[in-house]
Design goal:
291 residues, 4 helices, 25 strands, globular
Length: 291
């Protein structure tokens, strides 16, 4: 039996030719290397399965996230592991830099703009997504100034330690955002990305993919055919390959490929459609700390 047969490659930095030094003796690889800590400096960076721009998008890393890099290629790709959810993959090297000052604030709006100066009339430098982390050096009137000199509307930021009280309300703000496999911003996101983002806004760590979330998050609700009898706002409902958030006893919210968007719909309607595709509810989990 291979020593790495039980390790999930999505969250374990190993390949047949290269692996993280701390995995030596646990996996087989031609060489083992110490990683170097880097920071995502782009508003969002695609993490892809292969080092090419047309490779599948597995997830996105947001500005301020830390990532341990184990290999960089001359073609401009870096292979590493995200610190927050441990996902492994290829990122554009241009989106990374050595870590700067520790983040002090995070973006609390769906999107905000970073300007080169205190005026909102000049062309912005970048659009930053909800959850992006920034190191703020000072506040000038209504603009927060980052360590690298960008000006961001202070009203769109929260201190890094300040959390939202209701992750369902955070998810509701994404209604209408387009569906994007692997996405994690209002420009496009998938079902588990919506859950991860909403929980993160409330200070709750979550794995990236729906199967991981089903295993790791919350406590089971109901048994057998009575699974839906006691659901409440904030419960997560899982099918194979999909997750949705209960808004109340009768409606749910999810990013889904049927609507190709984040949508609110009646539970009965969603259940009937998904059941018609041959899938059934596998579990319902309750995250007590979020409510």
């Amino acid at each position: 039996m291979s020593p790495h047969c039980n390790l999930d490659p999505r969250v374990t930095p190993f390949r047949s030719d290269l692996a993280a030094r701390h995995l030596q003796g646990k996996v087989e690889a031609k060489r083992f290397v110490e990683g170097r800590l880097m920071e995502v400096i782009a508003p969002q960076a695609p993490l892809r399965r292969e080092p090419r721009p047309d490779a599948p998008l597995d997830t996105e890393a947001l500005k301020g996230e830390r990532v341990t890099i184990y290999e960089s290629t001359p073609e401009g790709w870096s292979w590493g592991q995200l610190a927050a959810d441990h996902y492994v993959g290829w990122l554009p090297s241009s989106a990374l830099a050595p870590p700067g000052a520790a983040p002090t604030h995070k973006v609390a709006a769906l999107r905000t703009l970073a300007f080169p100066g205190p005026s909102i009339k000049v062309p912005p430098l970048a659009a930053l997504p909800l959850g992006a982390a920034l190191a703020i050096s000072r506040v000038v009137e209504r603009m927060a100034v980052t360590q690298d000199g960008a000006f961001v509307p202070a009203i769109h930021l929260k201190p890094i330690e300040e959390n939202e009280p209701d992750f369902v309300a955070v998810a509701e703000r994404f209604v209408g955002a387009p569906y994007l496999w692997g996405g994690k911003t209002a420009l496009g996101l998938d079902c588990s990305g919506l859950v991860q983002l909403a929980l993160a806004a409330c200070g709750i760590a979550s794995p990236r993919d729906s199967d991981m979330q089903e295993t790791a998050l919350g406590a089971p609700v109901g048994r057998g055919t009575d699974k839906l009898a006691t659901v409440q706002r904030g419960d997560l409902i899982f099918w194979k390959g999909h997750v949705a958030i209960m808004r109340d006893r009768d409606t749910l919210i999810h990013a889904n490929a049927h609507h190709m968007a984040v949508a609110i719909e009646p539970v009965a309607q969603a259940l009937a459609r998904i059941r018609g595709s041959g899938s059934a509810v596998t579990s319902i989990k309750r995250i007590i700390a979020a409510l």
